[in-house]
Design a protein that fits this description.
The chain is mainly alpha-helical. The protein is built from 20 helices and 6 strands. The chain has 2 domains: 4-337, no CATH class; 367-523, no CATH class. The strands form 2 sheets. A 4-stranded mixed β-sheet has the order 1-2-4-3, with helices on one face. A two-stranded antiparallel ribbon has the order 5-6.
Length: 524
């Protein structure tokens, strides 16, 4: 006879222990010893702008859904204009993710494969190759909501419509952080619609009602404040230009990356095995298993559509991969006739291997962070010493963390240069709006951080290259205006290597004429 009370106590103790260990692990990413990353800084900057009455998309450009900005605004409010509140929210999201995943996996697969895959999923999540931006990621918040959806769907029944309403709320909220988290929601809809149970349409309707609440409120808010059209332009039009054009090739690469990209590869190989091995006829699939299987093709589809395979993009796949890995391990152990004791030893060995590898990754990451922290501290110091509070500062590139940490606003809606160089999105009107912003509110200082933008698309161009005419990535008319504006500044480099463009004193300037016919100022 099963010791149900004992299993429940074990589940509670195991969940609490693993959640506590996860919180301790993400302390490695605390602001005390980590610099702000690129996206981390952009989200924090926009979040603080929201607290000052600035609207996303319309007044400050970025291309993520609004959930991440609202979460960062809350974090800034909690942390008093600093980073600690944002980090705390991301740490709680990671902790909640592990707690919910442990509940789902343990209740679906029992001991040892449920807890083991929960541990493996947690170790993969906090690995520096996936847990980027200090955890301040759209994917991380979406991941917690994905697991909440699975947990609530697993509990939902004819007499538990409240669980399905919660599942829908979580699924809808996840989409406002990252649209690619919708695979779990779509799979849940298919699962509920195809379930051969009485009242299935009531259950499905309850889920869909919940799923419509958060996106509906978000759209209503953006429409009420006049930012909806700008939001569609940033989130839909830009991301469509950003997405992969070679979908077939990207789909194959998505599958390939799942089985060869460290550290996701172990879960990817086990997931592949779960699809190849024959399931026992007597096997009873839990709701989580069925939803994960239905979600897998959608997860790969969304990953391929992005066309890029940055580490944090794989976080959205973790629920599906860990559940399918548990399926593979359970079936393989049964085929091999393994008893519980050898299974436990194997599971412990896998955990030890992952912990050792995680330690090596974090050691490697700490070296990189020291160089990042040095550049960022030097840039922030330069901005604070060469500009006054309230004066706008333009960081040319994508290092908005400098604006956030130095507490200087950008002088333009295009606070970083992504949209200016994205093929298929940028136009002459985009550049003209950018230059008009600068002319209306000239920055006291420009920091050229373009050399730190090491991604293939969009290609970033230094200010020196623009002045020298060494780029074909911007319209000639726009270049003339930008050069005319830049020649009002003089370039200097700090001892730490920070490239600054400082506004030249009016007395040292004389009016000149560029060959293009655009008036500009230069030093005499």
């Amino acid at each position: 006879m099963r010791d149900v009370d004992g299993e429940i106590r074990g589940l509670r103790l195991g969940t609490a222990l693993l959640a506590a260990m996860t919180f301790m692990a993400v302390c490695f990413y605390a602001p005390a010893w980590t610099p702000m990353h690129r996206d981390d800084g952009a989200f924090a900057y926009v979040g603080r702008q929201l607290l000052h009455g600035v609207l996303p998309y319309r007044d400050v450009w970025d291309h993520k859904p609004p959930g991440i900005y609202l979460m960062n605004a809350l974090g800034v409010a909690i942390g008093g204009d600093g980073r600690w509140g944002i980090w705390l929210l991301s740490a709680l999201a990671a902790t909640a993710t592990v707690a919910l995943s442990t509940c789902v996996l343990w209740s679906s697969f029992g001991v040892p494969w449920g807890p083991l895959c929960a541990v493996l999923g947690a170790l993969v999540m906090v690995d520096p190759k996936l847990y980027e931006e200090n955890g301040n990621l759209t994917e991380l918040y979406g991941l917690a909501l994905q697991w909440m959806t699975l947990w609530a769907v697993s509990r939902g029944g004819e007499r538990r419509l409240g669980s399905l309403l919660l599942a829908g709320l979580a699924a809808g909220a996840a989409v406002t952080f990252k649209p690619t988290t919708s695979a779990i929601a779509i799979a849940s809809v298919i699962y509920l619609a195809s379930a051969a149970q009485a009242g299935r349409w009531r259950r499905l309707g309850t889920f869909l009602l919940g799923a419509a609440v958060v996106p509906g409120l978000t759209v209503a808010w953006l429409g009420a404040v006049g930012a909806l059209s700008a939001a569609l332009d940033c989130v839909v039009t830009y991301n469509r230009a950003y997405a992969s054009a070679d979908f077939a090739g990207a789909l194959w690469r998505a599958v390939e990356r799942c089985v060869d990209k460290d550290p996701i590869n172990v879960l990817g190989v086990l997931t592949l095995a779960s699809l190849l091995i024959r399931m026992p006829r007597s096997a009873v699939q839990s709701a989580a298993e069925r939803v994960a299987l239905l979600a897998l093709p959608f997860e790969l589809l969304w990953l391929a559509l992005q066309g890029r395979f940055y580490g944090h993009y794989f976080l959205t796949l973790l629920p599906v991969l860990t559940i399918r890995s548990a399926v593979a391990l359970r079936v393989l152990a049964g085929r091999l006739g393994m008893r519980r004791a050898p299974q436990g030893v194997l599971g412990l060995a896998l955990v030890v291997v992952f912990v050792v590898r995680l330690g090596m990754h974090m050691q490697h990451q700490s070296v990189w962070r020291r160089s990042e922290a040095a550049w960022q501290a030097a840039a922030v110091h330069a901005v604070q010493t060469q500009s006054h509070p309230g004066e706008p500062v333009l960081v040319w590139g994508a290092e908005l963390g400098v604006n956030f940490l130095a507490m200087r606003d950008a002088p333009t809606r295009y606070a970083y240069a992504f949209p200016l160089f994205m093929p298929g999105y940028t136009t002459l009107a985009t550049w003209q709006e950018f230059v008009a912003d600068l002319q209306r509110r000239p920055p006291a200082l420009i920091v050229d951080a373009s050399a730190r933008a090491n991604w293939p698309t969009p290609v970033m161009v230094s200010l020196d290259a623009i002045v020298a005419g060494e780029t074909a990535l911007m319209p000639s008319a726009a270049r003339a205006e930008v050069v005319g504006f830049l020649l009002r500044y003089r370039k200097q480099t700090t001892p730490e290597g920070i490239e600054l463009w400082v506004r030249a004193p009016p007395a040292s300037l004389e009016l000149s004429q560029l060959s293009s016919g655009w008036p500009a100022r230069r030093r005499s």
